[in-house]
Each structure stands twice: as structure tokens, then as C-alpha cells.
């Protein structure tokens, strides 16, 4: 299956990801990768990557992995652990589906910096809200 259209749609239409400088760089069956090049705006008062940036990227990777089956999902819960921060300006979050049911989907996500160092990770539970081609009118 070719995921190019889904990747392009995400990278041009997801205003929240665009606002935060996050791009979907890979999508395959039950997996997705998002990346970001950090700026000062992604860091906290002390210059460390803001925890919200880590969690946002992880949620985007989990959502991308879930949507790889052509359905829409929203996150209903997550459990997330921070291991270390980084001075690197490149972050990569990879999500993989652990279990997919009719309405719920569970994804595991790991976040690394550009050197490959594991920074944080978590588990996300997502709820299926319908087909991607059934987007609501805005």
C-alpha cells in the first residue's frame, strides 16, 4: 500500500503539527514516524526540550500509526515516561501498533534525538471515530 497521499495530507492539513514544526516522515502498516527540528520556541526556560514537545510528538506518531489503516482516531489515554533530555535539535518519534480492535487501538511510541539516544516513550490508547474519507465539514 502506498502511504504517500496520507503523508502529504498530514503535512499540509494538520495545522497543529505545522504550528509545532512536526512532520510525518514515514507511514507504513501499523507504524509511523514524525520528526522535528527544534528551535528556541520548543525549549523551556532552562533551554531543555519542553516536555510538552516530547508528548506532542509522541501523540502525533501514535495517531499516524493508528491512521495507517484508513480510519480516524482520537487519543483517549496515555502513559508516558521521560528518561533524559537532549541538546540535539532533531527529534524523531516512532509509533507502532501493539493491538488493534474494532474501536480501540494501542500504540507504543519511542522518542529519540538525532544521535539515536532514547529520550522518552509511552503507550497511547486511541478510539476509532470513522473512516478518513468521512471527515466532517469545517
Choose one word for the global shape: globular
Q: Flag low-confidence runs.
A: none
Please report the number of helical segments: 3
What is the residue-mean pLDDT, rounded to a whole number?
94
User: Strand order, biggest sheet?
Assistant: 1-2-4-5-6-3
Give me the count of strands.
6
What Rg is obtained from the alpha carbons, in whole angstroms? 15 Å
Question: What does the main sheet amount to?
Answer: 6 strands, antiparallel
The secondary-structure class comes to alpha+beta
State the end-to-end CA separation: 29 Å
What is the chain-wise order of helices and strands? HHEEHEEEE
Helix content: 10-25%
| Beta strand % | 35-45%
In brief:
The protein contains 3 helices and 6 strands. It has 138 residues and is of the alpha+beta class.
Explain this structure.
With 138 residues, this protein is α+β, with helices and mostly antiparallel strands. Helix content is 23%, strand content 44%. Strands 1-2-4-5-6-3 form a six-stranded antiparallel sheet. The radius of gyration is 15 Å and the shape is globular. It starts with a helix and ends in a 7-residue tail after the last strand. 28% of the residues are buried. The model has no long low-confidence stretch (mean pLDDT 94).
